[in-house]
Every structure is written in C-alpha cells, then in structure tokens.
Amino acid sequence: MPEYSYDPKLQAYTKICPRCDKAHVGFNDEDVSIKLFSNYFSQDKATIDGFYSTCKICVARFMRARRDGRNCDPEKLLEEQEGKCGICEMPLTFDKVGNRVTAYVDHNHSTGDVRGILCVRCNSMLGSKDWVLRALEYLKKYGE
Hints:
Blueprint lengths: L4 E3 L4 E5 L6 E3 L4 H11 L15 H14 L4 H7 L15 E2 L2 E2 L1 E5 L6 E6 H7 L2 H13 L3
Antiparallel strand pairs: 1-2, 2-3, 4-5, 6-7
C-alpha cells in the first residue's frame, strides 16, 4: 500500500507529512500526482511509494536545527558574546525576519567545532576566506 492515498472528498491523491501534518494534494490522476509529490518529497527507493515520508521543507528545518545546534547552546553563546556578532559586534538575536534568520552559529567546517555567533553579513564573508585575506592585504598596502 503506498503512503499516499486517494481522498474521495478532494477527488485527488494526497500524501501527508507526519512531521508537519500538512496534506500535500495531488490530482485525481495517480501518475500526475506522483510527479507532483516529487516536488514536495525526496525520492527513497526503499519505501513503498518511492518517497521519504517527511516533506522536503521539514527535512530542511530539521537539518538546519541540527546543524545550528552543533553541541552548543546558541542562546548561551550569544549571551557570552554580549548579544553581539563575534566580528562586527552588531547586536544580534535568533529571531527570524521573514524567512531569514538574523544570527548564525559559526563553526569550523573541517572539525565541526563552534567558533561563535555571527551576523548574516559576517557569516557570508567568512565563506570567502580568500576575499578576507585579499582585503587585509589591501589595507596593509595602504598602511591601515
């Protein structure tokens, strides 16, 4: 039995994510519905219907929460930094603005060790270490 089912009231196939309880509604044609479900669920050949049970949005939320946790208490770490970005010292919170977070847990990608909490801009700039090194060389060149 597939993990999606036909809903006679909606006259369409539906697949429900157990994590968010959202019903993803397809069409009354099973083949077309399967194609639509592939937009919402990653493929998993080991399951009966060929899709993971959890939708892509929930998987992304779970992975972000897992990644941002990184064996630390982000709120405590931000408190230790006096509520400021570890680089530019701009005041930070973990509130969301629209779909974007305003603070990131920075970590070493090789070791996974947490370094601190950064604002969006500083976190993005660290992603380009070459740029940072060139910027430092530029400033040194002009005696700053």
